Amino acid sequence: xxxxxxMKNQVHRSLCEAVEAGSTSxxxxxxxxxxxxxxRFVWVLAGLLWMVAPHVTAARPLYILxxxxxxxxxxxxxxxxxxxxGDLTLRAEYVVPSNGTGALGLALDSRAERLFITYESSNxxxxxxxxxxxxxxxxxxxxxxxxxxxxxxxxxxxLYCMERGKPTLYAYQWDTVRRELAPAPGSPFQLAGxxxxxxxxxxxxxxxxxxxxxxxxxxxxxxxxxLMQTIPIRHPALNTAVDPIRGYLYYTGSWVxxxxxxxxxxxxxxxxxxxxxxxxxxxVIGLAIDLDTGYVYLSRxxxxxxxxxxxxYSSNMNLMNIVDxxxxxxxxxxxxxxxxxxxxxxxxxxxxxxxTVGGEKLPxxxxxxxxxxxxxxxxxxLSLTGISVVDRxxxxxxxxxxxxxxxxGQYDPRTHTYTWTNPSLSGGSITCLELVCRVDPSTRxxxxxxxxxxxxxxxxxxxxxxxxxxxxxxHVFQPLRxxxxxxxxxxxxxxxxxxxxxxxxxxTYRIVFDNKDNxxxxxxxxxxxxxxPQMSxxxxxxxRFFGRYDPTSHTYVWSYPQIKQGESxxxxxVLRLDRNVAGGATLxxxxxxxxxxxPPAQARVDLKVAEYIPLRLQKTLxxxxxxxxxxxxxxxxxxxxxxxxxxxxxxxxxxxxxxDLSIIDTLPREVSFVSADGDRQYGxxxxxxxxxxxxxxxxxxxxxxxxxxxxxxxxxxxxxxxVGNAVALTTKQTAAxxxxxQVIAAARVPSxxxxxxxxxxxxxxxxxxxxxxxxFPVNAGGTLTYTIAFSNPxxxxxxxxxxxxxxxxxxxxFLSADGDREFGxxxxxxxxxxxxxxxxxxxxxxxxxxxxRVREPMDPNTVIGNSVALMAAQTAxxxxxxxxxxxxxxxxxxxGPKGAMYIKPDYISRTNPAVTPELMVLVYLQDGIGKDxxxxxxxxxxxxxxxxxGQQIFGTETEGKxxxxxxTAPILAATPGHYGELRLTATGKLRDGRSFxxxxxxxxxx
Length: 1006
Fold this sequence. Notes:
There is one protein chain. The protein has 1006 residues and is mainly β. It is 4% helix and 52% strand. It is built from three helices and 76 strands.
């Protein structure tokens, strides 16, 4: 039926008035005589209008129980606004009373704007005003002990709830006189054959879908509760939601033992079922549908640790959005009735901070300072005329300026209001106006300021929005605290030492800065390190994310939008000292920490260039090993064994003597001291620090010293315990030198077993005869098959707990192996392949094949060494190795400029590609290649010959950048069977015809 614009407006206004009548009055003017609520045809008409005119539907709210376990002040309920593409914007958070062992179910009367909450281990139903979030009342469900799923039926004006695993349905209606819930006539109802765990209402057909752990879902008619249909399903239905507009039924079943982790869509027309696994095998607790868009929303947690988010999926079950870390969410609900066509919001831009008042988080504004209100209204594509936006300023505010002031906007000092009349509408669906005010200096701190605005048009009724803020007295900011030290060892670890370094060495600076002297956050924090001219930049914490090196100013700057009160941060900067710096020079490095709110704070550290060659230090295990070692070469030692460590140190200088030597060995807690060379002469044991220290007056040039340290491994040391022992050597003239050694504890084993025999050969893949060293030539990109043969030469002894570990070199990728996933597994993290046997009988021999692919491109003459280790509980580890040499590369290198490439995520799942359907790639072009020099031709990624999508070119005149996306399916198809690290190469074009390339690595996971 066609409706003209006047008729559309009339029907729309009638529906809006009917909704308003239902939400503002408990009387029955909106009901037909003898009916129990809106007539179903009116509701269906509303739904159809809503579906055929989505452009006049404002954002719908979503309510969710954000933390089922509650907090000391109650159970938080969050209200989100649903955006056009499933995005969620937090509107507010409220706290309602807790009960039982946690809030579980949530339902909504969209007309009367009432929320209903059920609790696990309780038979209470709480009623909450959906607008003010104030408690209205509660009712106890007689006969129930622990309530689960709950739903509101607008076609009957009844509230349904149930107890898990039982066939009993409880129905309640709102008593308008006593203003409380009362049992509906005939309640409770017994549903034939039901074992209820979840339910969903189809208000159009008048049907109730009931799910449970069985392989079927039952459908009952709400008028008489007769069983109408039994639907076969493939997974448990512990959460259920229905979309009557599109004819889909959704269900999940993941929060009880025996359930699974699938979201399934059942087509109510043709019975086709499609499902996807929920990522991380998460527990789905709540499920709801936005009937505007057909998007599916689900909450995850608290049944699995770490799952505490809210997810949005399209009707095709594509993941659209995730809101992380909202607590321990359970039930959620979305209104099922049409909403207002225009949405009005009012927010405060860039507040000074936030404070919690009466359980509500309010933005802070400084007394005497200006701040900005942002007033936005979203109209979709609805044409609006006669627009009037009126902001009524409270007495605490002084008007400063506004958008279109003196044109469409005018301030009236008599009424202290600001009015826009027919302001210019933006090209999009959202128009925003700004109002700048100043807090009156006489306003006391801690006062809540409420500012409201109204919007009125010829096409829509008047709507209002408000923004609240709390005043804070002007804050006097203290400088940020900053310190800087030089660290020895790799970035991210080490100990603070007296700063001394040799020309050509890397130096790690650690910078610690915090906002502990200010009780409020500070904005736009900048930490600037001015590098000495004798040093060059190597790397830094958060490089190209929060930090960036500027070669022009020779500075490194970290930038943070905000640092909260009390927050502390640590970053590290790695520099390299030029090789031509003279010994004895002192280099000063300064760092400056500042923000928009705080004065600058500075720290400096001096670095002395050493004139001596560093001493050499080595530590080995010379006694006590079992003869067996793990795949990383760490020796096994028996619990209770006596271990002898050998420490060798020397002065490699040809003409410099070092003085005041200290050799400090830090003993691990798993050992006790026995003896040491020079004990009580030039060495001593400190039982408090559990260290042993030797002291020497001098060590002449070219001299070497050897020391032995004897300890005993504790008898109760558990097998496989890693025991680490470190030693440090310091002198007056040189920087500290460190060495360490790790051993692995093992249970005592019987002696007298002959070692196993092991051999490794290249079965196929060679492209010629071996060289004089026996190394076969192979091609880059070629497939190699290794054969590993091993045996037990003993005549009467069986070997147990046998493991064979092949350490794959980085130059190859894994393809396949004998016994894969039966008694063999590939470890992508360590790039190793391991076979395990419970035993190997006397005289037994085994042969296994391992297939790999040589990566490409690969430099000619690259030697690829592949080693394998064989271990058993009764014998020492034996090893074998075979080498091949690369003859050439099958992929010609790309000539031209090079770029830097960063990807996110840095992994691809082969068995579950839906987890990583595409890679986001960011390319930096330097060497003076700006954004205008880059061709718009799509980048190509290999392997897979994948063309970029969504490509954007930006940057500066001297450094161009490209942001694009690549599908991962072609990459997986081009590398069948590959797991572990994979090199990716992206190529592109410049406008002058040259090509550029960049490389990175990605991990292929199982």
